[in-house]
Design brief:
EC 2.8.1.12; transferase; Aldehyde Oxidoreductase, domain 3; MoaE_sf; molybdenum cofactor biosynthesis
């Protein structure tokens, strides 16, 4: 599968292998990792949850959007869910195109669209507490402590 959610560590090379094409002169990757400090707070670990079937559909949608904008592009995206420790890989995006500029642009487009439309939620655990951050753009907070049924937009 070119677009997937996984509970297992992501094999970066296997994501890259999905976009190899003879016409490609460039393959770009984005590897999103768990950082130790966010807004000055020390993070111990994160927990990602998602509405998995919808998340995969949205990743596929992003792939289609990229194919419309960059017709020669091949895209693969894998996002991890569950507990992730500091430096763990959370997401890998690979894009191949005949020319590097398109590969860079399409890859950046992919990560921004993931944060906009894919139903993935993050809970941060710190030394002094924890909090559901909300959507990936961090523009939504969850007063009840986590995503509720109404937050699962289709």
């Amino acid at each position: 599968m070119k677009y997937e959610m996984t509970k297992e560590p992501i094999n970066i090379q296997s994501v890259i292998d999905k976009v190899v094409q003879r016409e490609a002169g460039a393959i770009t990757t984005f590897i999103g990792t768990v950082r130790e400090f966010t807004h000055g707070k020390k993070t111990l670990y994160l927990v990602y949850e998602s509405y998995e079937t919808m998340a995969v559909k949205k990743l596929e949608q992003i792939g289609k959007e990229i194919a419309e904008r960059w017709p020669e592009a091949q895209t693969a995206i894998t996002h991890r869910i569950g507990r992730l420790d500091i430096t763990d890989v959370a997401v890998v995006i690979a894009v191949s195109t005949p020319h590097r500029a398109d590969a860079y642009e399409a890859n950046r487009y992919a990560i921004e669209r993931i944060k906009e439309i894919v139903p993935i939620w993050k809970k941060e655990y710190w030394e002094d507490g924890e909090k559901w951050i909300g959507n990936q753009l961090e523009t939504v907070q969850y007063p009840a402590g986590g995503p509720e049924e109404g937050d699962l937009n289709e």
